[in-house]
Amino acid sequence: MKTIKIWSFIVGLIVISAGCNDFLDIRPEGTLPSTGVDYTKSENIFLSVSAAYASMRSYGAHEFPYISAFEITSDNADKGSSPEDNPPAKELDDFTFTSGNGMFNDLWNAYYDIVSAANYSIHQMPLFAQELQAQESKDYAWQCQGEGKFIRAYAYFNLVRMFGKVPYYDTITTEAILSSTKQSEISALYDLIEKDLNEAIAVLPESYTKEWAGRITKYSAMALKAKVHFYQGEWNDAAFYADKIIASGRYDLLPNFRDNFLIDGENSKESLFEIQASTLGLSSGDKTFLEYAYQQGPRGNSPGNLQGWGFCTPSSNLISFFTERGETVRAQTTFLYRGTKTPEGDSIKNACTNSVYNGKVYTPASQNKWNYNGYGFDYNCRVLRYSDVLLIFAEAMANGATITTTSGYDAYMALNAVRIRAGLIEAPATIQNIWDERRAELALEEDRFFDLVRTGQAKNALAAHGKNFVVGKHEHFPIPANQMKLNTNLIQNSGYN
Question: Can you give the residue range of the structural domain that contains 345?
Fold first, then answer.
C-alpha cells in the first residue's frame, strides 16, 4: 500500500475568497480567515500551497468532466456505462455538444478555481519572505511560490487547450474583474505559462524526501514546459527540456508497464506529476480522494467495492489498433474485460454492463476499503510520465530539433526505449511511428484527443470512429454559455452559437 501523503490533506487551510461565487466556486480544504495568518511562523508557509494542490482534486478538474472532455472525445474511448446514462457525456462522445453543455461550465469553473487558489498562494509568499528571519525559511517560501506557479501554469495549459482564448488572471480577483476581463490571445497565454514555469524551475528542488513524495519538483516543471512547447511546435525548446530530464538520470521506465498503474506504483521513478488522492487509510470521513478511477470502474460488478460508473470504455477502434500492432504487454494492462479474473484474483463478472473497461484504473478489492463502494479512491490521476517525456523528445527530434543533447539520446533511442519495455521490436523513428507509439503508450490517460488536434489528425481519425469532427470548429470547445452571460466581454469560439 502506498505511503499516505498527509501533506496534501492538511485540515484548517487558508480560505481563498474571490467574493464571486457565481464565477468561481472555490473549494479550499478548510477555512482560516486570511487576516489570521501569522507570517512569522514558517509552519504556515505550505498551508496555501496545500489548498492549491487540493483544488486539483475537484469534480470538474480531474473527475468526470475531465475524463469526458479529454478522453471520451477521442477515438480511444466510448462514453460507456448504459446508453441512456449521462446525455451531456454522450454529446461529447458524438460531437453534438453546444455551449450549454454543463460539462464545459464545470471544467471552466474548476480550472479557474485552481488558478484562484494558485494566485492566492503565489501572493502569500512575499509576505512570509518579508517577515521570516531565517534564510532557509525565506528560501522555502520562494520554493512554495514555485509550486503555485506550476499549478497555475498547468491550469492555464488545460484551459487554453480546451477553450483557446481565455481570460488571464494573476492576482486575487474581484467580481468586477471577473465580469469584465477580456480573453487573451493564445500566444500570449502560452508566453505567460512559460514564464510561470521558468520561474518555477529556478526555485523548485530536484527531489523531496519520501514523506513529501508527489510534490512538484524542478523536473515536473521541466516536463510540463517541454509539453507546452511541444503543443506549439517549438521543437528545439521541447527537445531541450525533455533532454535535461533524460540526462538527469533521476527517471526511468519501470520494467513492468503495469506497475505504473498500481497504487503501490504511485510517485515512482517513472512519475513526474500525479494528482494525489488518498482515503488516508480510513473507511469514512472527509473527501480527500479522487473519484477518477471510480467513475471508470466496472459497472454492475460485485462486490460493491469492485464496481464504478463504467464510463470511458476502450473503443473497438483502440482494441483493433492494439491487435494490429501485436500489443500484448500494454493490452493486458489497458483492457479490463468482462468475464475475466485479474492477477490479484478479482472477478470482473459477466453481469457487468460493458464488455471492457479501462484497466489502467483497476484497483484490487483488497485496497478499496471505503464504507461505500470505494473503488479506486486511493488512485492517483497520472498526468506526466517519463515515457511521455521520451516520446516528446523523439517527436521533437524527428521534427528537426537541432539542440546539442546532453543525454546521449536521439529520436530512435527514445522511441525504442518505450517500445522495448512494451515487448515490441525496434522501429524507425518516423513521425507516424512516434504518433502511434503515443497512442499505444498513453491510451486512456487523457492525452489522445488533444494529440489528434495538435497533429492535424483529428478529422480523419475521428471519422474512422464515427465521430463528426468539424475542422475550424472542434479544435476548441465552446466558451460555456453561463460564462458568456456572466462576462459579456467574452467572444464565443468559431462555429458555436
Answer: 290-379
Nearest Cα neighbor of 155 from 142, 169, 145 is: 169
Each residue of 333-367: pLDDT tens digit?
999 999 999 999 999 999 999 999 999 999 999 99
- Is the domain of 192 the same as that of 304? no
Residue type for position 242: A
217 falls within a domain: no
- Does a structural domain hold residue 277? no
Which tens digit of pLDDT belongs to each residue from 43-88? 999 999 999 999 999 999 999 999 999 999 999 999 999 999 999 9
Domain count, the chain: 2
Mean confidence (pLDDT) of the chain: 93
Rounded to two decimals, what is the model's pTM? 0.94
Provide CB contacts within 8 A for 217, sequence distance 6+. Answer: 204, 205, 206, 207, 208, 272
Q: How confident is the model at residue 497 (pLDDT cuts 50, 70, 90)?
A: confident
430: its cell numbers: 518516423
The cell for 302 is 460485485
Is residue 256 a part of any domain in this protein? no
The three-point CA angle 246-252-254 to 5° equals 160
Measured CA to CA, the distance from residue 49 to residue 122 in angstroms comes to 8
Among positive and negative, which fits the CA dihedral 241, 243, 249, 251? Answer: positive
Strands 271-275 and 381-385: antiparallel
Q: Give, as one character, the DSSP assignment of residue 422.
A: T
Indicate the residue among 327, 356, 379 that finishes a domain.
379
Instruction: Kindly calculate the radius of gyration of the chain based on its CA atoms and give it in whole angstroms.
Output: 22
Which residue bears the cell 480511444?
Answer: 76
Q: How far apart are CA 107 and CA 115, in angstroms?
A: 12
**Among residues 379, 404, 425, which one ends one of the domains?**
379
Q: Which residues are within 8 A (CB) of 231 and not within 5 positions of it... i.e. 6 or more apart?
A: 157, 161, 450, 454
Specify the residue for cell string 480577483. 173
